[in-house]
């Protein structure tokens, strides 16, 4: 969806610090952005500079997206990409929203520990004063289980501001004190584990099977080429949704993967047959959490379940002292990953009334129409 220019640079001074909204191309504090990622109350690689800039460069060539930032004593303590939109769920309802693209799977802002309430108060205060035609603030893909959502709920409730979670889904999460073997045994039935062993043995009859795991940039360009080729050869290529089916998404993926490796955030896995990848996946490591970004497999070898066999190896995340959980980033009820990962993470979309009393009253009516109930907060 095309975005309207959010605004010329706007800024405000408030008790919680200095808040600014400016075009992303004008944002000059790269070091502050990188530092913020390492002190964030909740990890979100999709809001980190290396990932966000790759997406903005590829998908916002006009520079319509803005960055909302909060500073305390000159230090960056909050950051969120924002955009104005004219359409909401096919209806002509102008609004302000966090900016995401289809390959960004978490919409939480980066906010330093202790600044969660200040950030939301500053953002909502700015939205009240600079709403222009916008009828509400809409935030997508927010994890509902962390301090950021709890702080937003507090801020909205304290201000008696109409708000509601208008959509909620649960996606697979890996979070356990069990080791990989014990977790795998607990997740799958004896029959299914036996079948996977049989498939692995049959695959080994076809050639030499190996697992490659990398956390640096060695051979990264070739790995990316192989991933894009494997993905495009399957059903995503047939329906035109593979990354390599469009120049912009391919450029974005190549840049994001290279920058993730440079930032020390990337883990790559590949299941190979005679040194040729037949299943591949990329994780973003953002302690204390991780995010499973992309995966693909050779559909010609589907009878061996190479994707499931590789996910068995991915359970090695459980052995990392710095990683407590991994978000699958998968659609709810995903038929493969939910057979293995047994925990859940709630992801919500929320709408919040903004502006003066009359506009907030209109926002209240819109929320009631969408949810079919009185909006009682988050």
The CATH architecture of the largest domain would be 3-Layer(aba) Sandwich
SS-based structural class?
A: alpha+beta
Apparent shape: globular
| Intertermini distance | 27 Å
In total, the number of domains comes to: 2
- Count every beta strand, where a strand is a DSSP E run of 2 or more residues: 14
CATH superfamily of the largest domain: Gcn5-related N-acetyltransferase (GNAT)
The CATH class assignment of the largest domain is Alpha Beta
In the predicted model, the low-confidence regions spanning at least 5 consecutive residues are none
**Could you tell me the strand content as a percent range?**
25-35%
Radius of gyration over all CA atoms, rounded: 22 Å
What's the rounded overall pLDDT mean? 94
Largest sheet: 14 strands, mixed
State the share of residues found in helices, binned by percent: 25-40%
CATH topological fold name of the largest domain: Aminopeptidase
Series of H and E elements:
EEHHEEEEHEHEHHEHHHEEEHEEH
- Put simply, the count of helices is 11
3D architecture notes:
- With 378 residues, the protein is of the alpha+beta class.
- The protein has 2 domains: 187 residues, Aminopeptidase, CATH 3.40.630; 165 residues, Gcn5-related N-acetyltransferase (GNAT) (Aminopeptidase, 3-Layer(aba) Sandwich).
- 34% of the residues lie in helices and 28% in strands.
- Strands 1, 2, 3, 4, 5, 6, 7, 8, 9, 10, 11, 12, 13 and 14 form a 14-stranded mixed β-sheet that branches.
- A hairpin with a 2-residue loop joins β11 and β12.
- α2 packs antiparallel against α9, α3 packs across α4 and α7 runs antiparallel to α9.
- The longest helix is centred in the middle third of the chain and has 17 residues.
- The two termini are 27 Å apart.
- The mean pLDDT is 94.
């Amino acid at each position: 969806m095309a975005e309207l220019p959010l605004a010329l640079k706007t800024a405000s001074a408030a008790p919680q610090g200095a808040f600014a909204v400016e075009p992303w191309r004008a944002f000059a504090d790269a070091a502050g952005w990188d530092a913020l990622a390492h002190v964030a109350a909740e990890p979100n690689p999709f809001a980190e500079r290396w990932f966000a800039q790759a997406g903005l460069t590829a998908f916002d060539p006009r520079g319509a997206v803005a960055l909302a930032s909060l500073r305390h004593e000159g230090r960056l303590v909050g950051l969120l990409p924002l955009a104005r939109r004219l359409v909401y769920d096919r209806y002509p309802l102008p609004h302000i929203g966090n900016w995401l693209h289809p390959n960004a799977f978490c919409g939480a802002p980066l906010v330093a520990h202790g600044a969660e309430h200040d950030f939301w108060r500053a953002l909502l205060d700015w939205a009240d004063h600079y709403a222009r035609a916008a009828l509400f603030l809409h935030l997508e893909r927010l994890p509902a289980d962390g301090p950021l959502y709890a702080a937003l709920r507090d801020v909205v409730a304290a201000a008696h501001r109409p708000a509601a979670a208008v959509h909620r889904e649960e996606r697979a999460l890996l979070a356990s004190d069990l080791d990989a073997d014990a977790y795998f045994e607990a997740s799958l039935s004896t029959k299914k584990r036996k079948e996977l062993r049989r498939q692995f043995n049959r695959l080994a009859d076809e050639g030499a099977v190996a697992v490659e795991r990398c956390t640096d940039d060695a051979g990264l360009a070739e790995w990316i080429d192989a991933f894009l080729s494997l993905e495009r050869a399957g059903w995503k290529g047939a329906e035109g949704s593979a990354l390599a089916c469009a120049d912009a998404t391919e450029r974005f993926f190549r840049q994001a993967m290279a920058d993730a490796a440079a930032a020390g955030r990337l883990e790559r896995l590949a299941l190979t047959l005679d040194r040729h990848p037949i299943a591949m996946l990329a994780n973003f490591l953002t302690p204390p959490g991780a995010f499973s970004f992309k995966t693909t497999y050779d559909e010609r070898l589907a009878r061996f379940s190479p994707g499931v066999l590789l996910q068995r190896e991915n359970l090695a995340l459980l052995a990392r002292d710095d990683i407590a959980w991994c978000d699958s980033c998968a659609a709810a009820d995903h038929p493969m990953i939910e057979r293995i990962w047994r925990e859940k993470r709630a992801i919500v979309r929320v709408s919040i009334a903004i502006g003066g009393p009359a506009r907030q009253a209109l926002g209240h009516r819109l929320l009631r129409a969408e949810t079919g109930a009185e909006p009682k907060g988050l």
